Amino acid sequence: MPKLKRNMSNFDRIIRFVVVLILLTLFFVGGVRGVLGVLLIIISIMFLFASVTAFCPFYKSTNLSTYEAEDFID
Questions:
Q1: Within 13 Å of residue 33, how many CA atoms lie on the same side as its CB?
Q2: CA–CA gap between residue 27 and residue 33 (Å, rounded)
């Protein structure tokens, strides 16, 4: 498997994780179903992958990076 080069800061990762929690809460507790519910799950999976790996494919495709070497938590 190719090594994914980190391109997300810890703040960015935390924000995405919080968004995942909100989206999953909307799906499971809020009663959002159907096409919108499936979209919430798909977006949650993508954001969770980015949060865990600190790699965002969208950032990579647009040459963006929020990662700084001086990030205080690794």
A1: 2
A2: 7
